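Need Transcriptional regulatory protein PdtaR's 3D structure for a figure. Predict it.
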Amino acid sequence: MPQTRLVIADDESIIRMNLKETLVSLGYLVVGEAGDGVSVINLARELRPDLVLMDIKMPKLDGIQAARILTEEKIAPVLLLTAYSDRDLVERAKEAGVVNYIVKPFREAELLPAIEIAIARYQEFLEMDRQVADLKETLETRKLVERAKGILMDTQGLKEAEAFRKIQQLSMNTRKSMKEIAQAILLAHEI
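Structure prediction for Transcriptional regulatory protein PdtaR:
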């Protein structure tokens, strides 16, 4: 089983060193380290880790802003490790798409479940995102095929089932998707 790849970010190098040591002892692979929000984004874009662990208070760009970018770009889930737990920060972290939030000082025993659950939730999110994209694609195809069927029915005097079968047959014969065939019929009709 491949090791889980992590990127860590904290503006204090001693904290990064201790965190890396702890993560390695738990069996994780730390593939990158950063000291500010801009660097962690660039590092994550380049390395595509399984998870990014970072502090909130960092120079250039805080951890919550960095988390928002990483989440929007679907680069990696973010787990915040921070000494700050006020309600405003927690709310901002939720809005940014942070998958977990641990307040320092934390125990080593808290880290493993937090990491594993964060990664699992992120994978579920990605799967739902894929399903939504597939459903949108299916709906778009269905709409195009319905319009193309209507054109074939009007122009060629076909019944609905015959028009559908014609699109299906053209799809198989040309090795193109039904969506592509429907788009071609619509385009030809416009001309």
